[in-house]
Amino acid sequence: MDLQWIIVQRGDTLPRIASAYHMSKEFLAALNPEVASQPYLLAGQMLRIVPGTGRRYAVPPGESVGEIAGRFGLDEEVLRQANPEITNVTDWVGRCIHIPASNGKTIVKIQGEYGYRELIRDIEKLENQYPFIETGSIGTSVMGKSLPYLRIGQGSRHIHVNASVHANEWLTTAVLMKFIEEYAEAYGAHRAWHQYQTERWMQETTLWAVPMVNPDGVELVQEGVVNQHPHAQQLLTWNADRSHFTHWKANIRGVDLNDQFPAHWDEEAARRGITSPGPRDYAGTAPLTEPEAQALAQWTQKHTFDVVVSLHSQGQEIYWNYRDLEPRESGPLSRRLAKASGYKAVKLGGSDAGYKDWFIQDFGRPGFTVEVGLGVNPLPVEQFDDICIEVGMLLAELLSNGQ
């Protein structure tokens, strides 16, 4: 066993390290049993690793490089790049080769976890590869992180989608980013996305995405308050001295951002009954006290969105109404989205102060909260591919406007 040592860097997590070295998280933990007693890794900590090589394949007689690539769903060039020592060899028969993941050429993929640094990295890559994607910022978080947006399309119908309003729902960010990449790749290659014509999307619609509304909270869930976190003591107090934050939904000031919008905010705050900061359900002292909610509201007011969608998890449901203020088309549209995604359209009552509630109330246009996946947040990354298909079909139906 090729045992090696690595030094943990700030921002490293067990899933990220395991992914980087082609190991399972369980095997990495077994090699380092001391990590079982700590919720997060400490910068400077040394870990034992046994780097894996991923899938290996012994090439049988008569099989060409192209045939091997096809068998594993890869481009031949990707397979050759994964085996640089023999990339120029014509006959690979009898050799043991490395088979990369089939998504090796894609930009957006989950490597253990998907957080703020992965988001910023992928936005830069998408912008470089697809010049028709516009990027920018709608504001900053409590801790000064930029809240990025991406725009794709030039049409007169404007659609907005946001994700990771709640910290432990970070998988929604990766799902939204994956759809944007697939849309851009299909359009750039002049082909359809499934049965949908991306050229038509580009001409008729403009998609505005804010993939991570709550970056401070996402970072807290994934990395905890170790390594000199500036708000460590206060956060531990709000978290009842629990050192693990995977259940945390709020922003870094303990305010639930989806209870922050001026749509009967006082009734929602009273209904929640939470009077101080904490992991979830504290609406703050007033609407729009938090910079993340302020930025999203102000940005929405500057644009003329025809439809908005806020991605949350979990439940596989689509909430489409608000106090009978929603426009007539909201119900039929929700049923179309439900049919496309396999989710259930639900008429929800007894809930206020959410982003889609405020949008419906103030703008009188369709707004949707989409609860993706099933289980306990953070959802397991094993659901990522299925959720990408479900949400992708939902967004495709929305972009196509039933055509």
Question: Any overview of this molecule?
Answer:
The structure is a single chain. This protein is an alpha/beta fold. It has 14 helices and twelve strands. It has helices at residues 14-20, 25-31, 65-71, 76-81, 116-129, 171-188, 198-204, 215-223, 232-238, 265-272, 291-302, 330-341, 355-363, 384-400, and strands at 4-7, 46-49, 55-58, 96-99, 134-140, 146-152, 157-162, 205-210, 307-313, 317-319, 344-346, 367-372. The strands form three sheets. The chain has an eight-stranded mixed beta sheet with strand order 5-6-8-7-9-12-10-11, sandwiched between helices. Strands 1-2 form a two-stranded antiparallel sheet. Helix 12 links the parallel strand 10 and strand 11 (344-346). Helix 5 runs parallel beside helix 6, helix 6 packs across helix 14 and helix 12 packs antiparallel against helix 14 (384-400). The longest helix has 18 residues, at 171-188. It starts with a strand and ends with a helix.
Helices and strands, with pairings:
Blueprint: E1 4-7, H1 14-20, H2 25-31, E2 46-49, E3 55-58, H3 65-71, H4 76-81, E4 96-99, H5 116-129, E5 134-140, E6 146-152, E7 157-162, H6 171-188, H7 198-204, E8 205-210, H8 215-223, H9 232-238, H10 265-272, H11 291-302, E9 307-313, E10 317-319, H12 330-341, E11 344-346, H13 355-363, E12 367-372, H14 384-400
Helix pairs in contact: 1-2, 5-6, 6-14, 12-14
